[in-house]
Amino acid sequence: xxxxxxxxxxxxxxxxLEKENEDIxxxxxxxxxxxxxxxxxxxxxxxxxxxxxxxxxxDFFKNIKPMIFSKLxxxxxxxxxxxxxxxxxxxxxxxxxxxxxxxxxxxxxxxxEFYNYYRRGATSKDDKYFVRGNHDLSLPMETYHFITDKExxxxxxxxxxxxxxxxxxxxxxxxxxxxxxxNLEPQNSEPMNINSGMVWTGSKTDLVExxxxxxxxxxxxxxxxDIKEMVAHFEQMxxxxxxxFYHTYMEIRSRKTSRTRCLDQLSQxxxxxxxxxxxx
Length: 280
Fold this sequence. Notes:
Blueprint: H1 4-19, H2 24-46, H3 54-84, H4 90-110, H5 112-119, H6 126-129, H7 157-184, H8 204-217, H9 227-238, H10 245-253, H11 261-279
């Protein structure tokens, strides 16, 4: 089965939707409609038909279906969040958004065993998790019943969809929080101007990984610096634009192999230098 044409059409429709100047509720509603139509088409392609191999079936339920289904969860959640958001001060709204984010972190903790399995790119249990007929394992806290038919679902493809969707939602909420914080903070009439003469020559992804490691370790300002502020300083220092660094961070979190690739390489390089010095 070749899903590339369907997936390409789906991505183009969502890209066009994101470019439209529409309010967030309207965008979420239209997004849900696009995703539902795509899921129905996908279901017709799969329903009652055998896959050419078990590997093809695993790939479909581990990668292809969640790629689409996660968008439905995302738009559904955005619509619900924005409908219920308090019409109050920015401080109250920030607390509201943070509370929503904590729900998603709770989901990750609730499904920690499978979450770790999926994040590290493990495959040993794929035949149990992503092959139809194995429904004896726990499902996520929420369920979209209309597409969990036994012919179109496995025990954990929905869990993968929730993980992907909640990653996107955390990015969305963090961006909204940052926007609100900017409104609260007094504007500095003298922009930061650092002419360090240093240029970051590694990949932007590596720098984002390094920044989040520094932020997580709380070794800069005792942990009392927001990640966005830290990014701004490093962008100035190294003459680099990190763009949508939240999205980059989510891509790092979703790596199938090492999620600390840059840090691992830095450690190896330092150990190599130390070993080389000892031999001199």
